[in-house]
Amino acid sequence: MKLILTADVPNLGAPGDIVEVKDGYGRNYLLPRSMAIVATRGAEKQVAAIQRAQRARQVRDLGHAKEIAGQLGALTVTVKAKAAGDSGRLFGSVTSADVVDAVRAAGGPALDRRAVDVPGQIKTVGTHAVTVRLHPEVTTDLNVAVVAS
Fold it and tell me: Strand runs (DSSP E) across 46-137, as ranges?
């Protein structure tokens, strides 16, 4: 089965790659999870769009990564959780997508949610440390304040 990847698949390829996989793997795993689309003639246009979006999200080089790390260090990031109990425990948890949205709302750069490492699960109100991988050589810690709304 010939597929075009729409997401990064470990040991297979990056978004936009055209790969040949076994029928069952493609039909039962990649396609239902929207990690790939069937390769057709019209899908070539989608490949170009996927690769453009990936390049826009990527950090350009080491200098750019250090610049973004400096911007993140100066930010005060607050995530508003939906609800919390009397003891400060959240009903649910704060995810990396929530952190990315909060960084963008605080005036920070657009980050890829896969670059944000949330240690374990954030299930309590308070300040938590989150690691952001900007480049293979550049990682930065970000303090995230979780408040109940």
Answer: 77-81, 89-94, 116-117, 122-124, 126-135
